[in-house]
């Protein structure tokens, strides 16, 4: 059987990785010279990479086997009967798979559903999983984010991230080089931008589900969560964080996480003294100019969240934009344009540009968003580095410290790409680039008298700059 042969081949590959007899946790050989020991370490890293690819291949094999069993069970079963009989047949299949895998029936049901989706509707995702270029977590994210899309929409999302010949291939790191949470963010962002139902309509429906939830937990604790519009949630989170950072100091024993929770509890329970000024939080918001003017419904982008309805962006700006920074963006591809200046001190405009270019800490897999990060010279000023955009990054505090206390080193940046990183072993890792897209151009009314459409470029010149970056206080 082909499946059995695949399993045997995978087992042989795993055996080869460990040399046939050596244990995975065997002590490294003792060498007087550092080079052989370094080679051993490199071999271990190479082995980890091979195991990861093998795990992806085994996951793809599990998908084929699960879908194959479901298909065989359906063919063996009697002709379709009543809905109750069909449901009973499905339950029997799920129960069988759950027992074989020693997992819950809920987990088995999810595996069967995802296997059907991958084998019938997501061929690029399944091929990438078989090749080991994405993980099982990545494949599940594609299944999840294509739910509710029509076949054409699902195929377009797949092609954007996984088809190297796609016209609109995702920029930056390949999908498999993004940690799953970052890939989900990218996939969700693309889905929001290209969903056949406008984000305005979906947001209006989501508003009806807003709620506050309370869940008791062990040790005298409980969870309190709120399902809110993204603008409100981001503002609450940033305000609590800003207040917590202001309270930190040598005499404050509480962590940032504890301070944030304590502040939120005090505010909700009325513990803030009347007349005490509330800390001002910053919410970075990128708005396509035509959306800002109400000419299109193209989503805006809320830093740390992703696409939001244009109406929400306009409301945030109207209610809170007593100050904002403006940065031009290229109307051809949506990328920010260069801001140049040379001095040791990084000017405010250039810091804003960095936040737009990078979006978050540029270290691979880091989710720390831009407001918490620190502008940093990649090549130190003392070593000849300049304050140019290609010599600047914005690592979070943790990875800024890593640069100065270890052999990890950032690689040069470009105008549109954040710096990558080189590890102590010499391996190079790309950073995640922003996936800019050209803005949507509105359908403009015809000119009075001649029936001809007005030029969008003329409209831009007369009415607005090509792109606006707002920092809402």
Q: Which regions have little confidence, pLDDT < 50, spanning 5+ residues?
A: 20-26, 322-329, 336-342, 453-470
The residue-averaged pLDDT reads 79
Q: Care to count the β-strands?
A: 11
Strand order of the main beta sheet, please? 5-4-3-11
What is the alpha-carbon Rg in Å?
26 Å
Which band does the percent of strand residues land in? 5-15%
Short description:
This protein is an alpha+beta fold and 473 residues long.
Explain what the structure shows.
This protein has 473 residues and is of the alpha+beta class. The protein folds into 4 domains: 2-200, no CATH class; 228-268, no CATH class; 283-324 and 437-472, no CATH class; 348-429, no CATH class. The chain contains 16 helices and 11 strands. It has helices spanning 2-17, 34-76, 83-101, 105-121, 123-131, 136-145, 151-162, 180-194, 199-207, 230-247, 256-268, 289-292, 310-320, 348-358, 397-405, 456-463, and strands at 211-216, 222-227, 283-288, 300-302, 306-308, 376-377, 392-393, 409-410, 421-422, 428-429, 467-472. The protein has a 4-stranded antiparallel sheet with strand order 5-4-3-11. A 3-stranded antiparallel sheet has the order 8-9-10, with no helix packed on it. Strands 1-2 form a two-stranded antiparallel ribbon. It is globular and about 75 Å long. The model is unreliable at 20-26, 322-329, 336-342 and 453-470 (pLDDT under 50).
């Amino acid at each position: 059987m082909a499946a059995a042969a695949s399993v045997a081949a995978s087992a042989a590959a795993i055996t080869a990785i460990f040399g046939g007899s050596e244990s995975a946790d065997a002590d490294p050989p003792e060498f007087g010279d550092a080079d052989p020991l370094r080679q051993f370490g490199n071999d271990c890293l190479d082995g980890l990479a091979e195991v990861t690819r093998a795990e992806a291949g085994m996951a793809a094999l599990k998908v084929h086997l699960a879908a194959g069993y479901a298909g065989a069970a359906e063919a063996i079963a009697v002709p379709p009967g009543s809905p109750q009989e069909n449901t009973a047949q499905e339950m029997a299949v799920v129960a069988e798979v759950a027992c074989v895998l020693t997992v819950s029936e809920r987990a088995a049901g999810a595996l069967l559903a995802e296997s059907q989706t991958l084998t019938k509707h997501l061929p690029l995702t399944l091929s990438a999983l078989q090749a080991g270029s994405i993980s099982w977590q990545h494949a599940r994210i594609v299944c999840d984010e294509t739910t509710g899309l029509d076949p054409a929409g699902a195929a377009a999302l797949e092609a954007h991230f996984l088809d190297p010949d796609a016209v609109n291939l995702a920029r930056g790191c390949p999908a498999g080089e993004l940690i799953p949470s970052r890939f989900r963010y990218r996939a969700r962002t693309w889905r929001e931008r290209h969903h056949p139902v406008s984000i305005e309509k979906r947001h209006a429906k989501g508003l009806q589900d807003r709620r506050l939830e309370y869940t008791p937990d062990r040790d005298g604790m409980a969870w309190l969560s709120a399902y809110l519009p993204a603008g409100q949630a981001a503002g609450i989170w940033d305000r609590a964080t800003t207040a917590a950072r202001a309270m930190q100091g040598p005499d404050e024993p509480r962590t940032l996480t504890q301070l944030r929770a304590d502040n939120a509890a005090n505010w909700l329970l009325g513990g803030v003294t009347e007349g005490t000024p509330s800390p001002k939080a910053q919410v970075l918001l990128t708005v396509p100019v035509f959306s800002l003017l109400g000419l299109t419904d193209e989503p805006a982008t809320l830093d740390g969240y992703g696409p939001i309805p244009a109406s929400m962006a306009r409301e945030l700006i109207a209610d809170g934009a007593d100050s904002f920074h403006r940065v031009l963006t290229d109307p051809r591809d949506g990328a920010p344009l260069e801001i140049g200046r040379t001095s040791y001190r990084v000017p405010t405009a250039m810091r804003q540009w960095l936040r737009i270019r990078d979006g978050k800490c540029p270290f691979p897999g880091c989710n720390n968003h831009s407001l918490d990060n620190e502008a940093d010279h990649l090549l130190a000023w003392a070593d000849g580095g300049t304050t140019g955009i290609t010599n600047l990054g914005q690592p979070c505090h943790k990875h800024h410290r890593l640069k100065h206390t270890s052999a990890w080193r950032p690689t040069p940046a470009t105008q549109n790409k954040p710096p990558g990183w080189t590890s102590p072993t010499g391996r190079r890792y790309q950073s995640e680039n922003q996936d800019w897209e050209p803005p949507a151009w509105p359908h403009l009314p015809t000119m009075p008298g001649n029936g001809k459409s007005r030029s969008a470029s003329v409209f831009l010149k007369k009415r607005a700059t090509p792109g606006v970056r707002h920092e809402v206080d």
